Amino acid sequence: MIYEITLPYPPTVNHYYKFAVLKGHNKHSKGAVKVVIGAEGTKYREMVARAIADCGLPKIQGAIALRMYVYTPDKCRRDIDNVCKALYDACTEAGLWKDDSYIVFSQNFKYADPEKQGKVVLKIQQVDAEEAKAGAWLKGE
Fold it and tell me: Are 90 and 5 in contact (CB under 8 A)?
């Protein structure tokens, strides 16, 4: 079965993540830098979680094959891999799948004609190991 969900367009990775400087244990330590989810990332995760809950999708178990259709909000140049990272992390956090490391196949399409707010349409299918190797699930759509 192929599940489909439309999700909001993610913020840029530069706005999704923030750097936090951790204080050292003594006054001579310079501290360490840690990457954390910023305010825009937190808001985006909440929107994705709400969309997934409203849609009623089951948690996808095992190997995942997906197609991602990206509709940008404007004509700015954008790297599709940055969209993937923010979106996959938000879907993992929302419980759509256990972890994005289970994605064994991802086919991404980016459309140049902008849509007002932008959006991402995901078509998701759970596949078994043999289907994943053979790409047999691709013939079903």
Answer: no
Tokens (6 digits) for 126: 């759970």
Among residues 64, 139, 141, the alpha carbon closest in space to that of 104 is found at 64
Nearest in space to 63 (alpha carbons), one of 99, 109, 107, 108: 99
Q: Cα–Cα distance between 15 and 83 in angstroms, integer?
A: 12
Q: In a 10 Å sphere around its CB, with 0-12 CB exposed, 13-18 middle and 19+ buried, how is residue 13 labelled? A: middle
Give pLDDT tens digits for 31-85. Answer: 677 778 888 999 999 999 999 999 999 999 889 999 999 999 988 888 888 899 8
Exposed / middle / buried, residue 36 (Cβ in 10 Å: 0-12, 13-18, 19+): exposed
Whole-angstrom Cα distance, residue 100 to residue 28? 39
pTM for the full predicted model: 0.81
Task: Check if the beta carbon of residue 104 is closer than 8 Å to that of residue 39.
Answer: no
What is the full DSSP assignment across 68-119? Answer: EEEE-SSSS---HHHHHHHHHHHHHHHTSBS-GGGEEEEEEEEESS--SS-E
Distance between CA atoms of 52 and 81, rounded to whole angstroms?
A: 22
